[in-house]
Structures are given as structure tokens and as C-alpha cells.
Amino acid sequence: MEKFKSGFVTVVGKTNVGKSSIINRLVGEKVSAVANKPQTTRTRIRGIINRENSQIVIMDTPGLHKAKSKLGNTMLENAIKSIPDVDVVLYVVDATEKSMDEKILQKIKESNKKTILIINKIDLVDGKKVADLINAYKEQYNFTAIIPVSVKKDKNIEDILQEIESNLKEGPAYYDTEEYTDQTLRQIAEETIREKALKFLQDEVPHGIYVEVTKMKTRKTKEMEKIYDVEATIFCLRESHKGIIIGKNGNMLKKIGTYAREDLEKTLYTKVNLKLWVKVKEDWINDMSIVKKFKAEE
């Protein structure tokens, strides 16, 4: 009988290379916010992948970028600190990018960890470009494996899991095999609402917002059906942003709420009554009493 393996994996890379999408596909559930905007992920989020002979605990990290605020510094710290603590590193790069990120490569070299290079978005380039990238990265580091993938086309995703599994050691399951994330329901709700805001808002607004769930309780309807009452506040940096988030006649906030509620109902397998508010909290991205909630636990 094959021995059971387990271990921790971190996913690193620049912003907007598809890290969260890859994790959600590997886990089979949405555990990390996905939007076509940089810096979507703010903290280290764990997904749990339960396979027949292994349990893989995979961590999404904020995209590595130049920090411009206390929030930015915390996000950067979360990503870099995750590397020494894991068994395997997944380094995700975008096949369409023109140049390598020397800083990330340096961090990987310093860690000397087993690192699997994932070249994402291969559906957007030709085979020669992919082959050239593979050769170029081989010269930089002795990667454990190099796997070209397309999350959009669902290509080679299973190869990633098999490669991770082959590089784990024998060990116990760290989490119940029914679990797929260590986030609380409140955190999942906050991430879901923020993801929808990121998806629909203008470029200057999204990264100046954070979401705080103030109420999350279950009750029974008159028909004795279970329903979650969720109340949350979207905080933003400026009064002008508040107007954009609410939208004309409240249409934008309603749109964010509708899509977030639909996602939460799929996640919680029950009806959700979602109420949203918008408040201004100037310069919160430099307020450590708020920023510390995004700091990854040691």
C-alpha cells in the first residue's frame, strides 16, 4: 500500500499572473479572490487539496510588487515570508511577459527550496515562445520541474498536482479531509464581496477598499429553511470612491451584492440575505490597526 504524504506549498509570482486561479482550480473550490486586476490577494490564504494518498496544503500569496504603503509592505512581507516555511514552492510566471523578475528569482535561489516553475497562459503564445521560456528559466535555476499550463483551457493542471505529490514526504493529514480551506466563514464572505467589487469597479478604486463582515448568523425562514443573514461594510479611501461604489441609484452596490450573494449561496449551500454598506475611512492603508488583519499568522 502506498504511504500517505502531506506537506505545505506556497504559490509566488508577480501580480496578475494567475496564482489565485491556479489554486482555485487545484483545490476544486474557490478559496481565493480572482479578478483581472493586480494585487487581488492580500494575505496568505490556505487551500486544502485532499487526494487518495496525500494532503496538500497550498498557500496563495500576494503578488510581489513595489510596496507604496503599510498595506503594501505587509502584503510583500506575507509573500516573501512564506517561502522558507514550505516543502515546495510553485513559482508562477506569465507566458506573455517580456522579461523575468530578477528579485523573485533571487528569493527562490536564496531559499534553495524545491521549486516547480509554472508557465501560465500558454494559450496566448505559440509553442516556440514557450520553448524559449523553458530554456531561459533552466539557465537561471535548477527547477524541480517546469510545467506549461493554461488555467483558462484547463491544460496540464493535473500535472501540477502529480509533481507536487511526488516531492512531498510521508506525513499525516493536517486538516480534516472534508475541509478545503482554513478560512473562517466570515473571511470567505469578506473575500467574496471584495472579489466582486474588484471585478466591477474602476481601476482607481479597488485596492483602496477592504470589506468587514459585521454580522453572520443563521436562522430559519417561515418555511423552516436555513438562511444566512450577512451584513458587511465596504470601506474606501475617499468620498468620490464611495459614490462610485454605490453607483447611480445604488446600481453598482446592488450589482456587487447580487453577484456576491450568488457565490456565497453556492459556497454555503444555503440561501443568503446579504446587506451591504459603504463607508469612507481615509488613509486606512497606512493604519496598522486595520492593516494588521491582513498580516499572515506566523
Write the layout of secondary structure elements.
Blueprint: E1 5-12, H1 19-27, E2 45-51, E3 54-60, H2 70-82, E4 88-94, H3 102-111, E5 114-120, H4 127-140, E6 145-148, H5 157-166, E7 169-170, H6 185-200, E8 210-220, E9 226-236, H7 239-246, H8 251-268, E10 271-280, H9 288-291
Parallel strand pairs: 1-3, 1-4, 4-5, 5-6, 9-10
Antiparallel strand pairs: 1-7, 2-3, 8-9
What Rg, in angstroms, do the CA atoms define? 20 Å
What's the number of helices?
9
Q: CATH homologous superfamily of the largest domain - what is it? A: P-loop containing nucleotide triphosphate hydrolases
What's the CATH C level of the largest domain? Alpha Beta
**Number of DSSP strand runs:** 10
Terminal-residue CA separation: 35 Å
Name the poorly predicted regions: 34-43, 64-68
Our count of domains comes out at 2
Shape: globular
Q: SSE string, helix = H, strand = E?
A: EHEEHEHEHEHEHEEHHEH
Mean pLDDT: 82
Helix content: 25-40%
Describe what this molecule looks like in 3D.
The protein has 298 residues and is an alpha/beta fold. It folds into two domains: 5-170, Rossmann fold, CATH 3.40.50; 185-294, GMP Synthetase, Chain A, domain 3. Helix content is 34%, strand content 25%. It has helices spanning 19-27, 70-82, 102-111, 127-140, 157-166, 185-200, 239-246, 251-268, 288-291, and strands at residues 5-12, 45-51, 54-60, 88-94, 114-120, 145-148, 169-170, 210-220, 226-236, 271-280. The longest helix has 18 residues, at 251-268.
